[in-house]
Amino acid sequence: MTDQLIEWRDDFRIGIAEIDHEHAEMIALINQLHRDLGANAGLEPALACLGEIHSRITAHFALEEKLMRTLGYPRLTVHKEDHETLLDQILDILDRVEDGDLLNYEESLSEALNQWFGQHFRDEDARLHHFLQASG
Q: What is the set of domains in the chain, with CATH numbers?
């Protein structure tokens, strides 16, 4: 078991200090929960970890989407759909873990998060950043 499930990379930065900080904290939380599982932790800790990750990400997305609605962000629907894609992926991984697939959940979660964070931060959050800058 590695020390980190997902590694913060500079290409995750979108240039808004508060959002960059919150995203970095989210990744740190994911990594802390991952470390807390320890080697061969079993089904219950894995489910608790995944559930906590899902809850925290859901709360972050709700706040981000509220901000976008308030500002009349034109790509809200697309951005929200991207959020829902990640949440669905995490729920799928939770289902597999509940079915006893402890062997692949780390790899599945790491792959999903790394791919999603990299693409989402670079694309959707960067667009939001440009919109916010243009809006003043």
A: 10-135 (1.20.120.50)
